[in-house]
């Protein structure tokens, strides 16, 4: 096309692509019960039978004629008179008028411009727009001049026979049809990231140093409508330099497909075409001069004969040896060579690095940079002559020399580890729900420190013991206090019997253990009567004789009438102060822990037969906490720095675990039985796995002594409480695969209790079925978290 292309909103793609771019006798029954695409032909703009190549094949002659016309016009050549005479005027009219427009329109459609062009049809020199020859319209003299081979005065074209008739007009502009100046060079920011202009209303500068404003691209709704309605959406790209849409033609799409498939962009280009040898390989021996050779050049030299004889003798004597390794040995003797040169000795160096390149100057180094590159302390100069000498020239040269001297010559595998890469990727807390997050009910009624709480197995009632010598029974759903019992001593421990056939509460005070039936109007009368019937008369002991060692340690008694009226059904008296009582899962056996009892610190009891037994003849260390295994007949005994696991059926020590704590305060067994949790007064929480206790998991997120740890029976949750007033709820997922460590993630920190005498949260208890947590504190309140 000769005319200039209109500047439309969709610019040609060629201009964009051209620029860039895881044995006891009684515990025998302990173990009895267990618990649209543009490549689709149907969606293409041009039918398969109407691709551009088809038009070129049918009308190749017309295209060739037009191409010849362009070439002749650009080179300033004239048409041969004989060729012009051999074409009729009708043929000339068809080529210049109809066929030229048809072909040119098809070429324009390939460029993606569907609008009408203002370009005029190309008319060869000497043929007017009507298709008639200029010579026909001229005078007889002009016609005669053409026939005779004279020069036309107006056109300056000489038409004569053969090659001699061609002549170039001096006034003819050979660059008239050149469209190279039409290249879109409006944005002149150069190789600069476009994101630098995100905060500016313009996106660059044009050739006249004027700002180019950003076009309005529309919002997301416009983008959606364009995607639904525009049939050319799949073949439209955005020019980053001008922020305009560019519609790719079929030829452009073909080029992109070939590039993505690692093929040559031009399908007509043959990469394996035969090599054309423009120069001969035959050596032509030519003398340097034409002077004839001298006569002595034909006579053998005597000096050369003597030299050859001497060399032959030295070779025979072995003084001279020739080897093909001589060259390699010489190369090995080289000690000095250029580090950055392409030397053969550097071939053994793998992954060799090239010499570092100096940093190229940027826009800020210009004497007249754009305003966005200028700092406040910089100075702008009006011309290059006013720019002073560079003050850091010598320093830059010295730095460049250091770069070449110190820079590495070989790639070395270096592991760069950042601090955040060493931390595990933890999930978000909302993905680990449910867990308690908010404070629900506050149980108020005690007047002193609450040291122990216990939730009934059915989850309806809550028992609490305090230093105010009272035991209170609460309704979980409403927070009401149903019963209050005055026991006369500070309560150390309260715990419900896990059996569903008894409504029984064990209360530990001083050196006594009281078994109470805290009957209320909310409890079924049948369950209350059944519990009272069990303890009306003591069981028959038969021939059983209690050992002296046991008799002096514990005594079973029936309550008086006054005590019976208060709900007490059995009284156990011990020789020392009792600190803890734990039930076996069946509800018939229980164990008591006496810290000052020495070798009688742990005593086993059977509720149905009123019998007691000392399981250990000797116990090393001071007992701190005891706990039953949830599934197996195992007993966990925690001393100050060790946890011992005993098998009650086989009556032997199963495992001894050393805990990295100075003083153990609490112990909890996982419902699965394969893990247990230990809390210490030295602010540590340690997670152990029964199969591999050598490397426990240490949790250090408390700042003061840890008072209580506990597991939830149903959900993968555990909680820890300390004297600092914080209760940490954590997600603890365990796996059946022993090779996979448990997944521990703290998910919530609960605060609400206040300190009293440097004590805060002393007891924790989970709801048996719901993710609810009960906390008892030194501020005489119990709080429910849900």
TrEMBL record:
<dbReference type="Pfam" id="PF08145">
    <property type="entry name" value="BOP1NT"/>
</dbReference>
<feature type="repeat" description="WD">
    <location>
        <begin position="443"/>
        <end position="484"/>
    </location>
</feature>
<dbReference type="InterPro" id="IPR012953">
    <property type="entry name" value="BOP1_N_dom"/>
</dbReference>
<comment type="function">
    <text>Required for maturation of ribosomal RNAs and formation of the large ribosomal subunit.</text>
</comment>
<keyword id="KW-0698">rRNA processing</keyword>
<feature type="compositionally biased region" description="Acidic residues">
    <location>
        <begin position="59"/>
        <end position="69"/>
    </location>
</feature>
<feature type="region of interest" description="Disordered">
    <location>
        <begin position="1"/>
        <end position="169"/>
    </location>
</feature>
<feature type="repeat" description="WD">
    <location>
        <begin position="761"/>
        <end position="786"/>
    </location>
</feature>
<keyword id="KW-0539">Nucleus</keyword>
<feature type="compositionally biased region" description="Acidic residues">
    <location>
        <begin position="34"/>
        <end position="51"/>
    </location>
</feature>
<dbReference type="GO" id="GO:0043021">
    <property type="term" value="F:ribonucleoprotein complex binding"/>
</dbReference>
<dbReference type="GO" id="GO:0030687">
    <property type="term" value="C:preribosome, large subunit precursor"/>
</dbReference>
<dbReference type="GO" id="GO:0000463">
    <property type="term" value="P:maturation of LSU-rRNA from tricistronic rRNA transcript (SSU-rRNA, 5.8S rRNA, LSU-rRNA)"/>
</dbReference>
<dbReference type="InterPro" id="IPR036322">
    <property type="entry name" value="WD40_repeat_dom_sf"/>
</dbReference>
<protein>
    <recommendedName>
        <fullName>Ribosome biogenesis protein BOP1 homolog</fullName>
    </recommendedName>
</protein>
<dbReference type="GO" id="GO:0070545">
    <property type="term" value="C:PeBoW complex"/>
</dbReference>
<keyword id="KW-0853">WD repeat</keyword>
<dbReference type="Pfam" id="PF00400">
    <property type="entry name" value="WD40"/>
</dbReference>
<keyword id="KW-0677">Repeat</keyword>
<comment type="function">
    <text>Component of the PeBoW complex, which is required for maturation of 28S and 5.8S ribosomal RNAs and formation of the 60S ribosome.</text>
</comment>
<keyword id="KW-0690">Ribosome biogenesis</keyword>
<feature type="domain" description="BOP1 N-terminal">
    <location>
        <begin position="197"/>
        <end position="436"/>
    </location>
</feature>
<comment type="similarity">
    <text>Belongs to the WD repeat BOP1/ERB1 family.</text>
</comment>
<feature type="compositionally biased region" description="Acidic residues">
    <location>
        <begin position="79"/>
        <end position="121"/>
    </location>
</feature>
<dbReference type="InterPro" id="IPR001680">
    <property type="entry name" value="WD40_rpt"/>
</dbReference>
<dbReference type="GO" id="GO:0005654">
    <property type="term" value="C:nucleoplasm"/>
</dbReference>
<dbReference type="InterPro" id="IPR028598">
    <property type="entry name" value="BOP1/Erb1"/>
</dbReference>
<dbReference type="InterPro" id="IPR019775">
    <property type="entry name" value="WD40_repeat_CS"/>
</dbReference>
<dbReference type="GO" id="GO:0000466">
    <property type="term" value="P:maturation of 5.8S rRNA from tricistronic rRNA transcript (SSU-rRNA, 5.8S rRNA, LSU-rRNA)"/>
</dbReference>
<dbReference type="InterPro" id="IPR015943">
    <property type="entry name" value="WD40/YVTN_repeat-like_dom_sf"/>
</dbReference>
<feature type="compositionally biased region" description="Acidic residues">
    <location>
        <begin position="129"/>
        <end position="140"/>
    </location>
</feature>
């Amino acid at each position: 096309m000769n005319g200039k292309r209109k500047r439309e909103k969709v610019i040609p793609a060629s201009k964009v692509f051209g620029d860039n771019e895881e044995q006891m006798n009684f515990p025998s029954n302990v173990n009895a019960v267990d618990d649209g695409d543009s490549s689709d032909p149907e969606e293409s703009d041009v039918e398969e039978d109407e691709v551009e190549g088809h038009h070129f094949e049918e009308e190749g002659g017309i295209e060739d004629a037009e191409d010849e016309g362009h070439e002749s016009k650009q080179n300033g050549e004239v048409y041969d008179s004989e060729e012009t005479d051999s074409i009729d005027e009708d043929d000339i009219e068809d080529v210049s008028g109809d066929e030229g427009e048809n072909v040119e329109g098809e070429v324009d459609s390939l460029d993606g411009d569907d609008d009408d062009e203002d370009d005029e049809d190309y008319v060869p020199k000497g043929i007017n727009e009507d298709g008639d020859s200029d010579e026909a319209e001229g005078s007889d003299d002009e016609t005669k001049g053409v026939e005779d081979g004279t020069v036309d005065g107006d056109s300056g074209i000489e038409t004569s026979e053969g090659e001699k008739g061609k002549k170039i007009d001096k006034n003819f502009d050979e660059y008239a049809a050149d469209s190279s100046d039409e290249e879109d060079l409006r944005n002149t920011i150069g190789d600069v990231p476009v994101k630098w202009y995100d905060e500016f209303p313009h996106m660059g500068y044009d050739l006249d140093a004027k700002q180019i404003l950003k076009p309005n691209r529309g919002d997301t709704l416009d983008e959606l409508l364009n995607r639904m309605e525009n049939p050319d959406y799949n073949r439209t790209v955005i020019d980053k330099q001008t922020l305009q849409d560019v519609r790719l033609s079929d030829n452009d799409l073909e080029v992109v497909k070939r590039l993505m498939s690692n093929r040559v962009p031009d399908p007509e280009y043959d990469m394996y075409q035969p090599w054309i040898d423009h120069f001969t390989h035959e050596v032509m021996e030519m003398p340097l001069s034409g002077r004839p050779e001298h006569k002595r050049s034909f006579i053998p030299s005597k000096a050369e004969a003597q030299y050859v004889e001497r060399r032959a003798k030295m070779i025979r004597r072995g003084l001279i040896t020739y080897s093909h390794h001589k060259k390699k040995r010489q190369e090995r003797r080289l000690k000095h060579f250029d580090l950055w040169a392409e030397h053969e000795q550097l071939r053994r160096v793998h992954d060799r690095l090239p010499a570092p390149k100096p940093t190229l100057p940027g826009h800020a180094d210009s004497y007249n940079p754009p305003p966005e590159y200028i700092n406040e302390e910089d100075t702008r100069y009006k011309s290059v002559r006013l720019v002073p000498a560079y003050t850091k020239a010598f320093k830059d040269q010295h730095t460049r020399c250091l770069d070449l001297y110190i820079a590495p010559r070989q790639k070395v595998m270096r592991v760069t580890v950042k601090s955040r890469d060493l931390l595990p990727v933890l999930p978000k807390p909302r993905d680990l729900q449910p867990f308690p997050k908010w404070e629900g009910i506050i149980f108020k009624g005690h007047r002193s420190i609450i040291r122990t709480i216990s939730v009934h197995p059915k989850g309806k009632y809550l028992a609490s013991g305090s230093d105010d010598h009272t035991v209170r029974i609460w309704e979980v759903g409403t927070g009401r206090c149903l019963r209050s019992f005055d026991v006369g001593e500070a309560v150390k421990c309260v715990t419900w019997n896990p059996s569903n056939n008894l409504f029984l509460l064990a209360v530990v005070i001083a050196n006594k253990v009281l078994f109470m039936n805290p009957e209320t109007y909310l409890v079924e009368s049948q369950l209350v009567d059944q519990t009272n019937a069990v303890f009306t008369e003591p069981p028959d002991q038969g021939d059983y004789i209690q050992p002296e060692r046991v008799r002096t340690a514990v005594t079973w008694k029936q309550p008086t009438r006054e005590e019976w009226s208060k709900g007490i059904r059995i009284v156990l008296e011990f020789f020392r102060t009792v600190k803890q009582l734990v039930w076996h899962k069946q509800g018939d056996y229980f164990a008591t822990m006496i810290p000052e009892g020495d070798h009688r610190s742990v005593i086993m009891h059977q509720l149905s037969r009123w019998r007691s037994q000392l399981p250990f003849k000797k116990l090393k260390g001071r007992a701190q906490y005891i706990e039953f295994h949830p599934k197996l007949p195992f007993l966990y005994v925690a001393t100050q720095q060790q946890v011992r696991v005993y098998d009650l059926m086989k009556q032997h020590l199963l495992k001894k675990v050393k805990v990295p704590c100075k003083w153990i305060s609490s112990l909890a067994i996982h419902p699965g039985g394969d893990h247990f949790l230990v809390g210490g007064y030295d602010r540590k929480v340690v997670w152990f796995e029964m199969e591999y206790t050598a490397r426990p998991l240490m949790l250090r997120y408390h700042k003061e002594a840890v008072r209580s740890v506990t597991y939830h029976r149903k959900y993968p949750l555990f909680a820890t409480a300390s004297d600092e007033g914080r209760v940490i709820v954590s997600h603890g997922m365990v796996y059946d695969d022993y090779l996979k460590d448990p997944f521990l993630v703290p998910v919530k920190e609960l605060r609400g209790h206040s300190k009293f005498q440097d004590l805060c949260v002393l007891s924790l208890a989970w709801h048996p079925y719901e993710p609810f947590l009960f906390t008892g504190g030194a501020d005489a309140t119990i709080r429910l978290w849900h």
